[in-house]
Specification:
Layout (H helix, E strand, L loop, with lengths): L1 H4 L7 H23 L5 H36 L1 H11 L10
Length: about 100
């Protein structure tokens, strides 16, 4: 869920936040339940290494997923963005978008 949430980063912020927080919540509850279960220390260590490994992978993968999210947004709204761009070309100097 966490990885998939980044595909909504640039286009639907509310959906991105919901999916990301849900994914983090599920991961935390699951990880804590593993840590406090009666499984072996080896199993807990393996899950801890897995969780940290996924965090490292997330660090490297998330910029590409965020870029993909913006590319999806630009490709799906290309006509509207071109119209806005042509309107902004009329102005000489600075244009401030609030």
């Amino acid at each position: 869920m966490i990885f998939g949430s980044f595909l909504f980063f640039g286009r639907k912020t509310g959906t991105y936040n919901l999916i990301l927080l849900s994914g983090i919540g599920i991961c935390l509850v699951t990880y804590i339940s593993i840590l406090f279960s009666k499984t072996s220390a080896k199993s807990k260590l393996i899950w801890t290494i897995f969780v940290f490994g996924m965090a490292v992978i997330n660090t490297f993968v998330s910029p590409y997923l965020i870029k993909s999210s913006y590319l999806i947004y630009v490709n799906s709204n290309q006509n509207e963005l071109q119209q806005i761009s042509s309107l902004l070309e009329i102005f000489n100097g600075d244009v401030r978008v609030l």
